[in-house]
Specification:
This protein has 11 helices and 15 strands. By secondary structure, it is an alpha/beta fold. It has a 9-stranded mixed β-sheet. A 6-stranded parallel β-sheet has the order 3-2-1-4-5-6, sandwiched between helices. Helix 1 crosses helix 10 and helix 8 packs across helix 11. It is globular. The structure holds nicotinamide-adenine-dinucleotide.
């Protein structure tokens, strides 16, 4: 069978992560690369091959499937043009910025007969797959969630809300999607935010109630240092706490004393520990089997909606209800 031809738009940090992973999968080939800084595409081509293209159109002429790995504000326009060119699309998170663009892209993606997948890699990370398995077998009562960053300086554009759409779109959105994945749909939320280091709200405290009755607190800071673990979920069940520490380990404490079991993923290679290998394999599976991918355009849309509801809650000081 002919190999799926992968085209990558944006060959910076994450574009190269995907390029390396796809170059090792025999079901596809990295066929085309395009970056507004051509030297970046040339560097990637030297390590994984592929035609260095002078435009998006040239890339569309070569590729069957297109990865959108450019900064956040460009996603809607580039992903929409790839769908219009009849391509399968893998769009990095965030799906889009702002509700009008997110609604537009959702309609475009849902009308396409090709695969449209969104890059919420953490859903495939073994630590979160294990958490979901445990929470399917037990009933979670409530949780405390944290998603921090050490800085918004690298890459430079992460500190520019005009490009990111806001800090929540850049970092926090990873665990916003994770909340839905683990705990289901949100019914209402309240939120507080403040501004300290960057020209935007950069510190958040959120309380969410879910349609199931489950509830959680969520803290997110953009300048908390990179102290381990910058990302953590603590779930409280019947005489049980399950907690995750980044994608490194899961700790499960059951019963009436302080005993616990630790599941460590530290020896798993980072690209697999963070779920990138599995999400890229899932994209090829969806193309080859003609099925919906595990993270759809609707999932991407829902994470954008959640970001917007949190900003709205802070702006208005109101409790925000979901439809
Ligand atoms: N899923 C994850 O874990 C994860 C991790 C990192 C980044 N991301 C997301 O991936 C995207 C890229 O992030 P990054 O860290 O790789 O950034 P980066 O700055 O390292 O790379 C972005 C690349 O896109 C190029 N580019 C910019 N505008 C372009 C355009 N219009 N057309 C073609 N190329 C263009 C830049 O020259 C650069 O090489 C962001 O949306 C980010 O949120 C996701």
């Amino acid at each position: 069978m002919a190999k799926i031809k992968i085209g990558i738009i944006g060959t910076g940090y994450i574009g190269n992560v995907h390029a390396r992973i796809f170059s090792r999968d025999e079901r596809c080939e990295v066929a085309a690369l395009y970056d507004i800084k051509p030297e970046r595409a040339e560097k990637t081509a030297k390590s994984v091959g592929g035609k260095v293209c002078a435009s998006r159109e040239e890339l569309f002429a070569v590729a069957d499937a297109v990865l959108v790995c450019t900064p956040n504000k460009t996603h809607t326009e580039i992903a929409a043009s790839a769908v219009a060119a009849g391509k399968h699309v893998f769009c990095e998170k965030p799906f889009s910025i702002g509700l009008p663009d997110a609604i537009k892209l959702l309609h475009i993606a849902e009308k396409s007969d090709k695969v449209f997948q969104v890059g919420h890699n953490r859903r495939y990370a073994p630590v979160y797959v294990k958490l979901k398995e445990l929470l399917t077998a037990d009933k979670a009562h409530s949780a405390h969630i944290k998603m921090n960053r050490g800085e918004l300086k690298n890459p430079v554009w992460t500190g520019d809300p005009e490009v990111t759409g806001g800090f929540l779109y850049e970092t926090t959105i990873h665990l916003f999607d994770m909340m839905r994945f683990q705990f289901g749909e949100i019914a209402e939320l309240s939120a507080y935010g403040s501004q300290h280091e960057y020209p935007e709200l950069d510190e958040f405290s959120i309380i969410c109630k879910f349609k199931s009755g489950f509830h959680c607190t969520f803290a997110s800071s953009s300048d908390a240092s990179w102290i381990f673990p910058f990302e953590r979920i603590e779930v409280f069940c019947h005489h049980r706490t399950i907690l995750t520490e980044e994608m490194e380990r899961l700790i499960d404490s059951k019963g009436f004393d302080a005993d616990y079991e630790t599941l460590s993923f530290q020896m798993t290679e980072k690209e697999e520990r963070w779920g990138y290998v599995q999400e890229d394999a899932a994209f090829l599976d969806a193309i080859l089997e003609g099925v919906a991918p595990p993270v759809t355009a609707l999932d991407g849309f829902k994470s954008v909606e959640l970001v917007e509801k949190v900003y709205e809650a802070i702006r208005t000081g109101e409790k925000i209800k979901f439809e």
